[in-house]
Specification:
single chain; mainly alpha; about 85% helix; about 0% strand
Amino acid sequence: MPKNLEISYLLDFYGDVLSPKQRDIMEQYYNDDLSLAEISENFGITRQGVRDAIKRAESILLELEEKVGVVKRYGAVQQSIPILEQLAKKIQRCNQSGDSVSQEIEQDCQNMLKILSSISE
């Protein structure tokens, strides 16, 4: 994943651990795509001060993700959802193609698909 996108995800998940000023600077830089000069004007600090704040915040977010791994797990779950949906539908088809349809299997498959649908929204 490109670094800007990675930091933007980390900011979404862990942004609350940053100070309000750090979070605002990071949001302006990564989400609003403002330049260091524009951000320095907004906060009344030097461009170097903005750069330092961004580097410190990046370090905090990356270190937190390394320890906690929420973004990595979230990505794995998102990648697994379509696979799990396909498997549930395959089980449904197999169940329906037999001589006797198990209502329990059918209901379980429907429940799995509802859960997967709610997770992916």
